[in-house]
Amino acid sequence: MVRRRIPRPSELAPLLRPAPFTLDRTAAALARAASISDLRRLARRRAPRAVFDYTDGAAEDEVSLRRAREVWSSVEFAPSVLHDVSKVDTGRDVLGARSALPLALAPTGFTRMMHTAGERAVATVAAGAGIPYALSTMGSTSIEDVAAAGRGGRHWFQLYLWRDRSVARDLVARAEAAGYDTLMLTVDTPVGGNRLRDARNGLSIPPALSLRTLADGARHPRWWFDLLTTEPLTFESLTAGGGTPFELINRVFDPALTMDDVAWLRETWPGNLVIKGVQSVADARRVVDAGADAVLLSNHGGRQLDRGPVPAELITPVVDELGDDAEVLVDTGILHGGDVVAAVALGARAALVGRAYLYGLMAGGEAGVRRAVEILRGEIERTLQLIGVTRVDDLRPEHARLRGVTDASLHPTGGPSRRARLD
Length: 423
What we know:
TIM Barrel, 8-stranded parallel sheet, two-stranded antiparallel sheet
């Protein structure tokens, strides 16, 4: 029989631990966010639907993005126990300089649409975290302003080649003058992908005041207040006019981009040259032979060709082909620090994330980006400790595998074959 009694005040005191009171609702919400998924849910509430979908969505039926996330979810780690993991080193040399994490913040277009703090906030956080940040040609903050905001940090510049090559020459010169050490040429965008969410939402850049957006603005007044009371939302590195993302890409990007342009950039640019959007072993070899220092295995976050190759599945065959000739980077679908650890174990030098920090930006501006990086850092450290590895540089293929895939042969074209099931 249970005997009951009145608890003493001294026994209740340790149980009464109310959360610190704050009037800053955004800070409180960010503090409660324990994962990138939490930040995504918060971003969905904070940003207008068209803006959130522009970040969250992909092309066509979004098969490429869904497959990428499924592959990262299929990772199986092989932990080894009884190691001293009280301290871990998450640093790694990436393209000739140390990064505090095997991670860089990827280039994203029109970032001030997500939050008026935009690229300046991202650059500030990246510099503070000791990781690189790649500014997009389609960015909404200038090359020079991003360098100033992230003073002391490491800056990369992502380049699209315009039909007018003089634009590219000017941008490359400005990036060099501003201290950017890496140029990242995107090659998977000869035409715009069919991003159905944007089409259905009627998204235009800059956002237009229509009946639909005005109705949505009633539910997101702070976002619209910030948009209308801060500096105009424009592309800062070029004059592209307005329109839908699809129209902008098809109007100004050059579908005639070839290997000759890679060779031209190699002769023009003195720093690191990365080719972004490589999706086959054969193309990885071609661009490295043309002078690239690294390839970024990427299908543009699933935003271009739907049902394209999954970048995570390309890491091992591309690393086997390139050896020490170039570094291999990877992106698309990475939403957890464990994904980053797996990418390195499979052979990548580092991973890039885009949506992960954009969710943070939409959720809370600069503080939200900082929270996203904190979450990823914690997940990377914890994953290393739990698999018994104390340094990122010690990660090897035996530490992680993709469940459901084998070391299958490649197609004669150099693309990845679908791999045999193990499970």
